[in-house]
UniProtKB/TrEMBL annotation:
This is YCII-related domain-containing protein. SUPFAM superfamilies: Dimeric alpha+beta barrel. Belongs to the YciI family. It comes from Mucilaginibacter gossypiicola. Residues 24-92 form the YCII-related domain. InterPro entries: Dimeric_a/b-barrel (IPR011008), YCII (IPR005545). It comes from the Bacteria. Pfam families: YCII. Signal peptide: none annotated.
Amino acid sequence: MVHASAYKDPHHVMLFFGEIGNPADNQQCLADRRGYYDNLKSNGKVVISGDFWNQDKNFVIVSVSNDNELVQIIENDPAIKQNVLELIKAMPF
């Protein structure tokens, strides 16, 4: 895997998340998360997001200018902060 730091110019990163607990127990957190990524999308930082059909994983493609911005986006994800989801993989392209 190529590390995001190998990209010196703005680039995209596909983030894969997996559920840690039961999503039914975390509806408010997941609603907060949708709002968080909707806000980032309106600011041009999220290209697309969605769920994998019939799986407990989802993805977000973000547009970042550097590694620090990527880390900030991940660390401020409400579901990451509350241990509802975990980052499985980050693939820069």
